């Protein structure tokens, strides 16, 4: 894994249990706008490991471009494996997060903190 160039990484934590969220499928799309028309092109896909992280960056040096990207965290299957009595009714199926890459040489770490009734994100390091 190159640490010299730009890259996109993420991790997912289940804040309702205080544990990493393993087995969450994540898709990364590059978004392109032509006038009123927006298109999405899938550029990467991965699944979180036992630590709630990915084994490699979604995009790394040489592939990251200045663009708008969308991460789609497919949390429905993760919640389907949990006890609903313990969690309550899970609301989220897919959590989309759009962000702009303005410097293709930078590290964009976009974590997701999930719970059955809410989520939050931030730019990590």
Which properties best describe this structure?
single chain; 125 residues; mainly beta; Immunoglobulin-like; four-stranded mixed β-sheet; four-stranded antiparallel β-sheet; globular; Transthyretin_CS
Structure description:
With 125 residues, the chain is mainly β. It has a single domain, classed as Sandwich (Immunoglobulin-like). The protein contains two helices and ten strands, in the order E-E-E-E-E-E-H-H-E-E-E-E. A four-stranded mixed sheet has the order 3-2-9-10, with no helix packed on it. It has a four-stranded antiparallel sheet with strand order 5-4-6-7. The longest helix is centred in the middle third of the chain and has 5 residues. The chain is globular. It starts with 6 loop residues before the first strand and ends with a strand. 22% of the residues are buried. The mean pLDDT is 90. GO terms for molecular function: hydroxyisourate hydrolase activity. It catalyses: 5-hydroxyisourate + H2O = 5-hydroxy-2-oxo-4-ureido-2,5-dihydro-1H-imidazole-5-carboxylate + H(+). It comes from Paenibacillus xylanivorans.
């Amino acid at each position: 894994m190159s640490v010299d160039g730009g890259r996109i990484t993420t991790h997912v934590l289940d804040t309702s249990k205080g544990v990493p969220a393993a087995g969450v499928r994540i898709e990364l799309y590059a978004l392109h706008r032509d006038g009123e028309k927006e298109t999405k092109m899938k550029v990467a896909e991965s699944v979180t490991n036992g630590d709630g992280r990915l084994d490699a960056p979604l995009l790394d040096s040489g592939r990251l471009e200045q663009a708008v990207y969308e991460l789609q965290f497919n949390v429905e299957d993760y919640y389907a494996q949990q006890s609903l009595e313990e969690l309550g009714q899970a609301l989220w199926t897919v959590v989309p997060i759009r962000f702009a890459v303005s410097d293709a040489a930078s590290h964009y770490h976009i974590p997701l903190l999930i719970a059955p009734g809410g989520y939050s994100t931030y730019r990590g390091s």
